[in-house]
Amino acid sequence: MGRKSRFPFFQMKGGRALQAQKKVSRRPESSSKKDALISKKRADISTHVAETMLKFVIGKKSLDNFDSCADNIRQIGVDEMISSYPQMYDRYLNKMAQ
Q: Per 3-state DSSP, what percentage of the chain is helix, strand, and coil (rounded to 5)?
């Protein structure tokens, strides 16, 4: 017989956690209008950060340029992306409560 988990979305059976019927997403859902914009910004920011960090590590870019790199990330739109997460999280919680 399965053991009850302290996590409501998992059920224990035979020592393994099985996901219950309700799907649980790790990332809060965004509205369809903002989804493409947020995805593009996330990809652009991730690419920029990865490339910049590599340049810092291998010495092609000095850490004195860190502030300009942060400004570049702000120009891409990281502040707008971050400000959209509270609304997405609220929608996620509302969906899970249903």
A: 60, 10, 30
